[in-house]
Amino acid sequence: MNPKRRGLRLAALAALGALALAACGGQTIKENKTVANSYCGEFDMAVNPWVGYEADAHVVGYLAKHKLGCDVQYKDLKEEVSWQGMGSGQVDTVIENWGHADLVKKYIDGSKTAQDAGPTGNTGQIGWYVPPWMAKKYPGITDWKNLNKYSSMFKTSESGGKGQLLDGDPSFVTNDEALVKNLKLNYKVVYAGSEPALIQSFRKAEKNHTPMLGYFYSPQWFMKEVPLVKVNLPKYTTGCDANLQKVACDYPSYKLNKIVATDFAKSGSPAYDLVKKFQWTNDDQNTVAGYIANDGMSPEAAAKKWIEANPDKVKAWLS
Is the bond preceding 211 in cis, omega lying within 30 degrees of 0? Predict the structure, then answer.
């Protein structure tokens, strides 16, 4: 048994022993349940490398620490590594999952070391975008069929004579290299390396009126600062992305969800109930993400500010 889980169960047994003694003093069943579930122990949260995820994680983590008494550990990990960690006892939850049918098959359906813990309430959308000035000056650019006509505008020193399609972190969900190939587009995918680098590139492109075509997504606080315009790729239909080597359609709309380690789900930790009940909106996430990325607040301070402003939502998660 995982040492962390062993400690949690021993503490739960100790709590049950205390309940047996307390029963002689006339405690009610409701009171007993509260005491039995009061011990949390260590709560390990993967933090994947985008600020929206960071917002989710720190709001849940702040409540787990300050309301449930958990020892919250934030672990900066890429997506696939996070799922691996649920099997080894190093990760309790991936608080924002973007599809990942391959990982679902491997860890939920296969090894059964992970479980779906329900929706976050957020709807995610991935796509290709241009800065607003380009959509205004070149309205045809928002139709993928015209992209080759404009490809020379997007050439960079890194794109090898082709137009550049700028992606973010290489670990993000992306079909872009296959899309470029299968749609016969004269472009090369180049990776900015991180979400902040991608955002800064779009910010400069809009400010300086320089051409840029890039991968982006929502929910995302930056869209309020620079309302990027989506390029219409071939319409997504169910199953059009089943073979990722042959995909030639747009990205689906993602109902983002939470994934938990199976051991964590069975542990009796009150943090599991919190994760299960946690749901909010794209606007909620963007607000907290904006506090962090745009206002320079620490993730904990940003979480605290939002929590104090939204007591009714928080109460529902803790009830």
Answer: no
Q: How far apart are CA 202 and CA 280, in angstroms?
A: 27
Buried b (16+ CB within 10 A) or exposed e, 278-304: bebebebbbbbbbbbbeeebebbebbb
Strands 229-231, 114-130: pairing kind: antiparallel
Amino acid at 319: S
Alpha carbons 40 and 178: distance in angstroms, whole number: 45
Query: Helices 51-66 and 270-277: crossing angle, nearest 10°?
Result: 140
Cβ contact 13:5 at 8 Å: no
Pairing of strands 71-76, 42-47: parallel
Give the whole-angstrom CA distance, residue 201 versus residue 167: 11
**Contact call for residues 40 and 70 (beta carbons, < 8 A):** yes
Asked if the model's pLDDT at residue 3 lies above 80, the reply is no
Contact indicator for 129, 231 with CB cutoff of 8 Å: yes
Q: Give how far Cα 295 sits from Cα of 197, 218, 286, 288, 302, Å.
A: 17, 19, 12, 10, 9
Closest by Cα among 44, 97, 145, 141 to 254: 97
C-alpha 23, offset from chain centre: 44
Determine the Cα–Cα distance for residues 155 and 61; give it in Å rounded to an integer. Answer: 43
Cα separation of 125 and 216, whole Å?
8
* Residues whose CB is less than 8 angstroms from the CB of residue 251 and which lie 6 or more positions away in sequence, other chains included: 125, 126, 127, 175, 233, 236, 241
In this predicted model, what pLDDT tens digit does every residue of 166-204 receive, in sequence order? Answer: 999 999 999 999 999 999 999 999 999 999 999 999 999
Average pLDDT of the chain is 90
DSSP letter, residue 34:
H
pTM listed for this prediction: 0.85
| pLDDT tens string 251-286 | 999 999 999 999 999 999 999 999 999 999 999 999
Structural tokens at position 97: 């999952």
Six-digit token string for 121: 């309430």
